[in-house]
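pinging the channel bc i need a second pair of eyes. not urgent but kinda urgent?? the chain im working w is below, pasted from the shared doc
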Amino acid sequence: MEPHDNSNLPPQSTLPQQQTLPTPPSAPSPPQLWLGPGPYLARRTWQQKTRTLITALTGLSGVLWIIIAFLAIALGALVTATAKDDTFDGKGEVTVSCSTGNAADGAVVPGTKVVAWTDNSDDVLHTTLGQVEKVTEKSKGSKMKTVRCHLPFTLPGVRRDAAGYNIRIGDTATQFVTSRALKDGAIVPIVIGGDR
């Protein structure tokens, strides 16, 4: 092979120059997290010493939370059961004429049936009106006395958690009376007609 003879080539200045593109800047490399050479690190003995204690405390706290949850459920069930079974004797009265001892043109007399029920329960309470009682009341600031007559009744088994009861006296219209009013002694108005 013969060496190349560059004499036939045009001079260097007449050849087109190749352009080189600049290299893009490189991102800085992340720091190395490797430890340099040297002795081993000391063992973390505190983790080994406290592992049993931490495991025991975690288990104990879990058991404690389970016990608290069961107690809360049991307490809620107990309160709910006693609230539904917590009853009292509801008292009420119907105002009647002192001269005749009845109301509603003789439709409400002593011994008339009284029926009470709530909208949220299947329990229906039954009783009858008692004998005529006269009450004399003195007006404040006046010497006048008012005589009022009424027929009392007692409804056994009124629930404390009930908002109120629908009460029907004889063949008169149904009246709604709150449980609180029955506890204090409700005066039930007599309305002729309505729903029978």
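so The mean pLDDT is 80. and Helices lie at 45-85, 179-184. — does that match what u expected or am i reading it wrong
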